[in-house]
């Protein structure tokens, strides 16, 4: 072979070797260029998870932080610090001292019960979700029912010898926050039931998470029909919108002879929409009519000053107010502008201290459909116990939260697992005696019960000059 041919072969050999060698290098470099993007994506995902975790943990407390700051005190603050450090004896002393100054603080009562339970080391844990940043008074009402049920069971031997702890979570009645809270509770294997949420929008958003995670949710206050049958792990102790609306429509059309009713509702709130639709159906069924008055609390151009005049112009003989919890102030404005021209009807959301405090005489004689009233059942033991515990019998939200908690307690007495609790509540034979009578669930998760009527009248119980009083036409 000539030297020229040999040199050519050697060159081809090194070229091939070079190409083979550079291939992995090119592959490595090309993949290396992708690495910063994947690394940034992973970092972003990790940051998001960490942020969500911190966000939810700031809103959840077993007794290690004060969520209702309006009810804070030096003793209560010292109690949460001691609890967080595992010094349960000091926590008990401090929470007790705080309650001596404010006996109506339901968060304080729950924390005290939690500390006493922690001291024994033999506990069973549930959660309750309330809208502290959305409606503080509603949150207190719900927590009082939970706190009273917890106190009673823990002072009568607990659940199979285990004392009940209640973790409080704040969702602000925000559906997005509610889903994050629900996700955190589902992941916490120590939680065996959730009492909540308050608003129907929050409950509907969170329900699929509880269902998928196999954690029982019992809402004490959500009435929207969309919650009915949403999942086998989802229950409620309040009557649905259908039962409440039918009760009110019967009074309005048959008893009060109001046959042409104008309606104000919140088109962005499921509970308000459900109540409106069920009320319209019930009014038509009973022979009444609904005016074409356009009154939407959620509308950008909502003007409370014009509503009553429009309704009267449309031939209305009464005005029905069905706001969401966070639109209660708009309903108050409508009532003020009405100046007594049209008789007022109201949904269960109007049963609030703010209605009495802000509305005063403008709401006098308004009739509402609610789940319960303490004086509606003569000799009601819950009302008597609540009056002794809190100084007052409480609202329908307190009673429904109590019923939701005692239902969970009754179900857990047979087994303290999530799955067994669901089976117990779903059993056709399940029934307990609660604040508002028998608590029994339909296959849809709804409670088998009806509503009751109340009327706003002058009185001294609330301290506003007006009270919600039981009413029979």
UniProtKB/TrEMBL annotation:
Residues 124-448 form the Leucine-binding protein domain. The chain crosses the membrane at residues 12-30. Gene3D superfamilies: 3.40.50.2300. It comes from the Bacteria. It holds the Pfam family Peripla_BP_6. SUPFAM superfamilies: Periplasmic binding protein-like I (SSF53822). InterPro entries: BCAA_transport, Leu-bd, Peripla_BP_I. Keywords: Membrane, Signal, Transmembrane, Transmembrane helix. Belongs to the leucine-binding protein family. This is ABC transporter substrate-binding protein. It comes from Aliterella atlantica CENA595.
């Amino acid at each position: 072979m000539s030297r020229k041919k040999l040199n050519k072969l050697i060159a081809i050999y090194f070229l091939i070797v070079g190409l083979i060698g550079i291939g992995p290098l090119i592959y490595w470099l090309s993949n290396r260029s992708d690495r910063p993007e994947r690394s940034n994506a992973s970092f972003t995902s990790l940051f998001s998870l960490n942020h969500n975790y911190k966000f939810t943990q700031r809103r959840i407390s077993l007794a290690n932080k004060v969520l209702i700051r309006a009810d804070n005190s030096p003793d209560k603050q010292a109690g949460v610090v001691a609890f967080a450090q595992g010094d349960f004896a000091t926590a008990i002393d401090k929470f007790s001292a705080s309650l001596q100054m404010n006996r109506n603080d339901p968060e304080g009562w729950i924390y005290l019960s939690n500390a006493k339970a922690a001291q024994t080391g033999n506990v069973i844990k549930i959660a309750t979700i309330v809208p502290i940043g959305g409606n503080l008074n509603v949150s207190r009402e719900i927590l009082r029912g939970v706190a009273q049920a917890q106190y009673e069971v823990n002072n009568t031997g607990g659940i199979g010898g285990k004392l009940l702890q209640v973790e409080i979570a704040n969702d602000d009645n925000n559906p997005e926050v509610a889903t994050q809270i629900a996700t955190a509770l589902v992941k916490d294997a120590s939680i065996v039931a959730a009492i909540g949420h308050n608003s129907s929008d929050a409950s509907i958003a969170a329900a699929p998470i509880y269902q998928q995670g196999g954690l029982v949710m019992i809402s004490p206050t959500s009435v929207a029909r969309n919650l009915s049958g949403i999942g086998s792990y989802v229950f409620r102790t309040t009557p649905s919108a259908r039962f409440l609306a039918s009760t009110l429509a019967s009074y309005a059309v048959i008893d009060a002879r109001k046959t042409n009713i104008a309606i104000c509702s919140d088109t962005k709130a499921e509970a308000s929409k459900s109540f409106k639709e069920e009320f319209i159906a019930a009014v038509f069924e009973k022979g009444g009519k609904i005016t074409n008055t356009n009154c939407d609390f959620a509308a950008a151009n909502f003007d409370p000053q014009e509503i009553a005049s429009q309704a009267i112009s449309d031939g209305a003989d009464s005005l029905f107010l069905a706001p969401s919890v966070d639109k209660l102030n708009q309903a108050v404005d409508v009532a003020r502008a009405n100046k007594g021209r049209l008789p007022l009807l109201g949904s269960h959301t109007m049963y609030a201290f703010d209605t009495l405090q802000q509305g005063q005489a403008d709401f006098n004689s308004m009739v509402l459909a609610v789940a319960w009233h303490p004086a509606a059942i003569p000799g009601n033991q819950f009302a008597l116990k609540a009056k002794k515990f809190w100084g007052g019998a409480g609202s329908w939200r307190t009673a429904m939260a109590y019923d939701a908690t005692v239902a969970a307690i009754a179900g857990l007495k047979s087994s303290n697992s999530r799955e067994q609790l669901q089976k117990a509540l779903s059993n056709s034979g399940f029934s307990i005696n609660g604040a508002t009578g028998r608590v029994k669930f339909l296959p849809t998760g709804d409670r088998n019960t009806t509503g009751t009527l109340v009327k706003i009248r002058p009185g001294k119980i609330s301290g506003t000059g007006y009270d919600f009083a039981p009413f029979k036409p």
